[in-house]
Specification:
This protein has helices at residues 2-16, 29-38, 53-59, 76-85, 106-117, 144-149, 151-154, 157-161, 166-180, 215-225, 251-256, 263-273, 293-298, 311-323; strands at residues 19-24, 44-50, 66-70, 90-93, 129-132, 184-189, 191-192, 200-204, 212-213, 234-241. The chain has 326 residues and is of the alpha/beta class.
């Protein structure tokens, strides 16, 4: 009881005091949504770490609490210096992309450095570093037994084709972050879709989630985690459930998460999330890369489970990998 009260008081105090939050990847679609979400709190100043200042000034709001500055996310020393050059209480990491070597994600290079440069906080404080990652990051490394057990989470386009090996690289960045600071939180949304409406963010664990996420919902969850002591040290997936309003608070949802989900919990989660898929067919193994659930429903797409990637899918994956280059 006393611990719960302390956590509640810390969260309330954190939400009320002035703070400065760094946002990386602020010019991306999700990064822009995060900036807009942070601006709803008049106690928050936002430092946008960007590569292209010209683009940033075009897409980010002109606001006295939004500060834009160039940072080289391939240079950890530059990241550390830029972090220490100004106020910085927390960071929301939305950046991604391949470094100039063509094989390493910028997340792997500078996220741990940035996390270490932030002020140290008490064990009961909310996370100071919230990372936008991706669902499915663990799945390329699943055993054959696990692949079969959770086939409808494994035999899906992003896992089958895994452009530029991004899933394993994201997982590596997550691990580096957790070693850099205990005050972290990792949010892994399922497929981000610009046409999917806002709804109820649904959290799950075990990396078996499939479906769709709305970017504004993802941004709301990333920002909410900064004020939630119960989100500290936790990694979870999220999807947007259409037709339900967002909750007034995510505290209960964060509190229900564990640090390491059990096998039994993961099995139950798998059975549940399959029921939350868009469409009526509800079989993600029938999807092809770049296609939609609605196309499976209409019969326009009907991949056979276990089928090899088509030339069209390979081309889509190659284009995605090319788009990750700096």
């Amino acid at each position: 009881m006393i611990h719960a009260l302390l956590v509640s008081l810390l969260a309330a105090a954190s939400a009320l005091r002035p703070r400065t939050v760094i946002v990386t990847g602020a010019t991306g679609k999700t990064g822009q949504a995060v900036v807009q979400e942070l601006l709803k709190d008049d106690q928050t100043t936002i430092r946008c770490f960007v590569r292209n200042e010209t683009k940033a000034k075009e897409v980010l709001p002109e606001h006295p609490r939004v500060r834009i500055g160039p940072v080289d996310l391939e240079d950890p020393e530059n990241v550390e210096q830029r972090t220490l050059d100004g106020d910085a209480d927390a960071v929301i990491w939305c950046a991604t992309g391949l470094a100039s070597d063509g094989s390493t994600l910028i997340d792997q290079i500078s996220l741990p450095t940035l996390a270490k440069a932030l002020p140290k906080v008490s064990r009961d404080a909310p996370p100071t570093c919230v990372m936008l990652s991706s669902a499915a990051v663990t799945r390329p490394g699943w055993s054959s037994r696990k692949q079969k057990k959770f086939e409808r989470s494994y035999d899906i386009p992003i896992v089958r084709l895994n452009p530029a090996g991004i899933l394993g690289k994201k997982l590596n960045a997550e691990k580096k972050l957790s070693r850099a600071t205990p005050a972290f939180c990792v949010v892994r949304p399922v497929g981000l879709n610009d046409d999917w409406p806002r709804g109820r963010p649904v959290f799950s664990q075990g990396d078996v989630a499939v479906g769709r996420s709305n970017r504004e919902d993802v941004a709301a969850v990333l920002v909410a985690a900064l004020d939630a002591p119960e989100a500290r040290g936790k990694t979870f997936e999220m999807a947007t459930l259409q037709g339900y309003a967002p909750p007034s608070s995510y505290d209960d949802a964060f509190g229900a998460l564990t640090y390491t989900p059990s096998r039994r919990a993961t099995q139950a989660t798998y059975a549940l999330v399959q029921q939350l898929l868009p469409g009526v067919e509800q079989d993600p193994t029938r999807l092809e890369m770049g296609r939609k659930y609605e196309e499976v429903d209409s019969g326009a797409v009907d991949r056979a489970r276990g089928a090899a990637a088509t030339d069209r899918e390979k081309a889509v994956a190659a284009g995605a990998a090319e788009g990750m280059k700096s």
